[in-house]
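Tutorial, part two.
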Amino acid sequence: MDSKDFRKNAHKFVDWMADYMENIESYPVKSKVVPGEILAQLPEHAPDNPEDMDDIFQDFQDIIMPGMTHWQHPGFMAYFPANASPPSILAEMLTSTLAAQCMSWQTSPAATELEERVMDWLKDAIGLPKEFHGVIHDTASTAMMSAFLIAREKLNDFKTNHRGLSEAGLHCCYASAEVHSSTDKGIRMIGLGSDNLRKIPLDENFSMIPEALEKAIQADLDAGHKPTCVIATLGSTSISAIDPLQAIGRICKKFGVWLHVDAAWAGSALILPEFRWMITGIEHVDSFVFNPHKWLLTQFDCSAFYARDKAALIQTFEILPEYLKTREGDLVNNYRDWGPQLGRRFRALKLWFVLRSYGISGLQEHIRRHIDMTRQLAERISQEPDFELLAPNPLALFCFRYHPEGLAEDLLDALNERIFEAINDTGEIYLTQTRINGKYAIRFVSGAPATRQRHMDKAWQIIKKIAIMTK
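Running the prediction step on this input gives:
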């Protein structure tokens, strides 16, 4: 493709992108294809000869688009939002054009120094201490694994990276019973074994009970094990539970255990002063992660990871063969030494575009609007005689079920599952499910940039209508 054809197709694609954003509500939010339907339309072998871009783009529209679930749709109320915004999209276009590999300062000085600056901006915006040092990872899963590795190495005087774990003893980690599955996976991947992840009991708000944490740590110490890391959750995936950082932090300080905070979704709400209570006790925290790509209008992937001990972070990950050495040395940040990945995308550019385009006030308005709309809807549902909320809803997420008067408890799960599937089959809104204290629950979260009050009202009308029809 020459420059002329590239320019022609790029203009055509940008027009399509703008139309897509304007008309996204016309698509079914959840794809309606059946397994194998897309695959059956794709040739078994790659073409031997070049194909025309017009034909390729037409196939994109005819084959690929029907198989897409539209995460930016105003009716997307499942999982967590994966925000995109026009400034972020434009930045991603530039990032793709530059195609830089930003592993070190020398490979792209601007990428490194911009990342350093925007991570400081973000740190200030959400109220983290100045002594935290930030790096952008692809996802919170990578950041979680990084935190566990630093905790493991620091506990073992950085010897296990070289000698392995065979003589290091049994390492134990601790988390709420509501912790995200990436914790289990990360602990498996770094060799500590998910059987050694202690799931701490919850209180009536589904938050970790500090006294139970302290007992678990003491029991492992008494058994000759090595308490390694505590994972506190701000905004758990199922129900948005928030662990008490202050009390947990004091226990970690008492026993010398690394404290990591997983705020993947809820961390964005810290941009609002009225939600800074969530990080009371942040002075005890060793590492922290949240995802601007979830709720802060920044394109996936962009996960903000912060560690207090920069030296420990670098000592955990740094490997310096001759071909990676540069003369700048310690004068600069080489972010290849700040996590598992050597190769790194220029993710800071989209974050810079977003922070400048919206300003802190614009981002605050975005988060506050979703919290307010969701709380109002949760209140409406709680007042309905045949509906009930199953957990507190401090942010923009709540869980509910349909519970008609007189219906036996053992029939409610099947009823609510039928309601849930019927709601998603409409193609107008998309929800997910969970279990709370063994009860089947329908989970509702707001966060898509296009969602407005009318979409919340429409969602409630659909939910109520289908529940009554399914009874």
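The longest strand covers residues 226-233. In part three we will examine how such features are distributed along the chain.
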